[in-house]
Amino acid sequence: MVSIVYHDELKEVQDDAALAALLAGPAAAPFDRLEWWRALAEECDLLPLIAVMRDGRERGVMALHRQQRSIHALGNWYSFRVRPLFTAGADRARMLDALAANLAGEAPHLVLSPLPDENGEASALARALRRSGWTVFVSPCDVNHVLPVGGRSYAQYLAERPGPLRTTLKRKGAKVSVSIDTEFSPESWEAYEAVYAQSWKPNEGSPAFLRRFAEAEGAAGRLRLGLARTADGQPVAAQLWTVESGTAFIHKLAHTEASKPVSPGTTLTAALFEQVIDRDRVSLVDFGTGDDPYKRDWMETVRPRYRIEAFRAFHPGNWPAITRNALRVLLRRG
Question: Which CATH number is 327's domain given?
Fold first, then answer.
């Protein structure tokens, strides 16, 4: 029998040896680690509700949080995706069925987003919720641009980029100097923040969260913090990447508005691609969520991200939202 236990104290999660081993193992992304969830709780004011599935020695976990009368996936604008995690021998369908049934007693409304489906994650969750009597709506909510490196060198990859991009690099690549930190440096972080403050980007959602993440990634050897500077040493472009389990993740990038004519962001992006392809030897580069046009110059594959919204139909407070969602489905099909 699968048992479901919820934890709002992350130390309790660590006390389960099998679960701690799952979360400390070779996770595919930062978003799968307990440290990420802890930082969301402590820096972004999200109260975690960690759903732990136990089936003998096997474990599954889904990071959630409460929001008024609803339960949401534990993530925010920094999260590329959310997903359930399982130990290698787990019966995933059985565990998700148990979780879906148990969640009915926790809240009448669920919002799980952004979910991948490359390995059937969104589909499996939707099936389990429907089997447990939830009224389920699944819709695309975002996209994820990625580059499968496919064994290419950086030079081979660059030769396949669009002509205008290669021309920009050839004409303007020498106008800035580039450095890439693999350890956290307070001075480099100050330069990153200075660039961000002068960029087109909106105010940072949680600067404390981002710095904490960069410090931890630097200590673990996963950080790739790139800076582009003018001849007089002024930082004009900055990018935060990390490398883990064969994947390079592009978390943040910015350049100052005044430096736009010399395209420092393009030069810096190229330098970081060279770093992760030729030296870190990654097999995938992940540009996170968002369908920004410039991503198409660098990336080659687009993966959808999904939103699951699920309701207990007997709950009267859900009826207006169920009706709205059903109408949207009919309009899309029509």
Answer: 3.40.630
